[in-house]
Amino acid sequence: MNMQQFSSVTGLSAHTLRYYEKIGLLRNIQRSKSGHRVYTERDLAWVEFVLKLKETGMPLEGILRYASLRAEGSHTVHARQALLEEHREALLLHIERQKMLLTALEQKIDLYRENKVA
């Protein structure tokens, strides 16, 4: 698929896709005879995973580290797993904190509903 199609499917702008290529998040993008980028299903699966990591709050530095390990090959699988497990722990702590904040917010809303707070 060409850049316009890939951009449409991923929701990322052409500028972002070029930036991801420049910083090493997207590697070895194929080119057509005319020099235009040609994205594969594998590229799509990778970008979708990168976007999920972003949504979980993984910093770009962590995503780049994961991408670098991935590019090194299968001998880095344990390092990649460790990086993801570390991020999972941080995400779980964040979720717990958000749950506590949500509870506090709901309690305040309940007070307003019961007209107990001016």
TrEMBL record:
Q: Which residues form the signal peptide?
A: none
UniProt-listed PROSITE patterns: HTH_MERR_2 (PS50937)
Task: Name the domain of life.
Answer: Bacteria
Query: What range(s) does the HTH merR-type domain occupy?
Result: 1-69
| Organism listed in the record | Vibrio tritonius
Sorted keywords for this record are: DNA-binding
Specify the protein name: MerR family transcriptional regulator
Classification via SUPFAM superfamilies: Putative DNA-binding domain (SSF46955)
- Does this UniProt record's set of keywords contain DNA-binding? yes
Q: Which Gene3D superfamilies match?
A: 1.10.1660.10
InterPro entries attached here? DNA-bd_dom_put_sf, MerR-type_HTH_dom, MerR_fam
